[in-house]
Specification:
- There is one protein chain.
- Strands 2-3-4-5-9 form a five-stranded mixed β-sheet. Strands 1-29-28-27 form a four-stranded antiparallel β-sheet. Strands 6-7-8-10 form a four-stranded antiparallel β-sheet, with no helix packed on it.
- Helices cover about 25% and strands about 30% of the residues.
- It is globular.
- It is an alpha+beta fold.
Length: about 500
């Protein structure tokens, strides 16, 4: 008998020890007395624990509180399931409706009639919303292999609004910043090659001439400048240095957190040459010039302003060719077609307009109301599509031949800023207010999310994206309020294969 009692005591002790390390929701009918007895038994069975008894008691009490919360949620879940089953039974008959029946909880009272199809549709929507988060997490993990941060471009003293890549050799990156300057960068080394300081206000946009070494910038000083640049690319650094610099933690965090850290970055811009005087100054707007772009051929430019108008200028004479009016609120962006004389302007009035200058005698305009909030950008693709993004958290793809309704709609969880579309594969890069950058195809299917962590990626709002498929090292660039531009390497074949 003594041996038997000892073995049963050891079994009991092991059983109690296992119970103390698990939270079971199966004990839905347990009482406070049962819990207190279990607590005492557990403490007696944990004599070999190194924790003090008061600390263990407090810890187990906290676990019990958590268990009680789980139990209440579990019971509530069972009741809701029963109510759903009851509701489904009542709606099983065709045409049968539900009165204001008092179910077990008053929260489910209803006075309206619902059909079975409506209920099933709601359940499907809820299921999709819950499962999409799981699918997104898997895609975020797999996308790290095909979307890699290559280089960070850091020297601006304020947020970067816009960026673009030159269309002619030497290939350099251009950034426009709220610090009243625009910079040209070596893509391979991340070194600042030239700084333009001719504006008296925030530089909101930068675009390069299609064939010559000229840049077009738009500014908050109500002007747009055309200035010439001459740069010499430095010797590329070894690949090892590139990988180290792209993964060094703390650089971007230091640039966005401390004023004195920003002051410490002044040495970089001072080492590169600067341009202060523009070749052409375009003046006619009465408000902030938010964006500007070259028309095909590079002989004319279009500007968009907060004065609710866009203007078409002749580059050689700097004269205003035509004033484009019609928007009810401030303009946010303008873009030109790569091969045709077409211009699209977007506005805070929730519309974007398509201006056709292909026939010199007729300048037609079409208005499109496809969004419910500010249209932050609308861009052309190389083909016959327009892609528009909005603060209403949607991106829509339109066909120029039939723009009555979008051919695809992308719904996101954050406002969308200046988007870009790759020339060859037509992949849409969406910069968001929530610091994320997502990639979609033209059909609206999500391809990837660029890696985002405390050590890499943007730490504040991402303002703009720009593709450069001709560069093997970095084929996508993004910029934001964290005062840095980032070069990414997107393995497009692998990305499309995952799709």
């Amino acid at each position: 008998m003594p041996l038997e009692s000892g073995s049963s005591a050891a079994a009991r002790q092991a059983k109690q020890k296992r119970k103390s390390h698990s939270l079971s929701i199966r004990r839905t009918n347990s009482t406070e007395q049962d819990r207190s007895g279990l607590l005492r038994d557990t403490l007696e069975g944990q004599q070999d624990s190194k924790l003090p008894v008061p600390l263990r008691t407090n810890l187990l009490d906290l676990f019990n509180q958590i268990e009680r919360e789980f139990e209440s949620l579990y019971i509530e879940n069972l009741e809701l399931r029963r109510e759903i089953y009851t509701l489904n039974d009542r709606l099983a008959g065709e045409g049968q409706t539900v009165d204001g029946a008092d179910l077990s909880k008053g929260a489910l009272k209803t006075k309206a009639s619902h059909s079975t199809s409506q209920l099933s549709q709601k359940l499907k929507t809820t299921y999709k919303a819950s499962t999409s988060k799981i699918v997104s997490s898997f895609k975020a993990t797999t996308s790290r292999a095909v979307c890699q941060l290559v280089r960070e471009y850091v020297s601006h003293r304020d947020g970067i609004w816009d960026l673009s890549v030159t269309r002619t050799a030497p290939m350099v990156l251009g950034t426009a910043s709220a610090d009243h300057s625009a910079m040209l960068w070596s893509i391979e080394t991340g070194k600042c090659l030239l700084k333009y300081t001719g504006h008296q206000g925030s530089v909101n946009s930068i675009k390069f001439h299609p064939t010559e070494h000229m840049a077009l910038t738009a500014s908050g000083d109500q002007t747009a400048h055309i200035w010439r640049y001459m740069v010499q690319l430095p010797t590329p650094q070894p690949v090892v240095d590139s990988s180290v610099s792209s993964t060094t933690p703390g650089e971007d965090e230091a640039d966005i957190s401390e004023e004195d850290d920003a002051d410490g970055e002044v040495e970089g811009p001072n080492e590169c040459p600067s341009v202060r005087i523009p070749a052409v100054t375009l003046r006619s707007h009465q408000g902030v010039v938010i964006a500007a772009d070259w028309l095909v051929g590079g002989k004319q430019v279009v500007t968009a302003s907060w004065d609710r108008a866009a203007t078409l200028y002749d580059v050689e004479t700097s004269e205003l060719v035509q004033l484009l009016t019609g928007h009810d609120q401030e303009l946010t962006h303008c873009c030109t077609h790569p091969t045709q004389r077409l211009v699209v302007t977007s506005s805070r009035d929730t519309t974007f307009r398509l201006w056709d200058f292909r026939d010199p005698s007729i300048h037609s305009v079409n208005v499109f109301q496809g969004h419910t909030d500010t249209v932050t950008s609308a861009v052309f693709t190389m083909g016959d599509n327009v892609v528009s993004g909005s603060d209403d958290r949607t991106v829509k793809v339109w066909d120029l031949k039939n723009m009555r309704s979008p051919i695809a709609t992308i719904r996101t969880d954050s406002a969308v800023n200046r988007i870009s579309v790759s020339v060859n594969q037509k992949i849409i890069a969406l910069p968001h207010d929530n610091r994320q950058v997502r990639l979609f195809d033209m059909s609206g299917a999500r391809l990837a999310r660029l890696p985002l962590s405390s050590r890499q990626g943007h730490q504040r709002i991402v303002c703009c994206s720009a593709w450069c498929e001709d560069n093997s090292a970095c084929n996508l660039f993004t910029c934001g309020f964290d005062r840095q531009a980032i070069g990414w390497n997107i393995n497009i074949p692998a990305l499309l294969q995952e799709k």
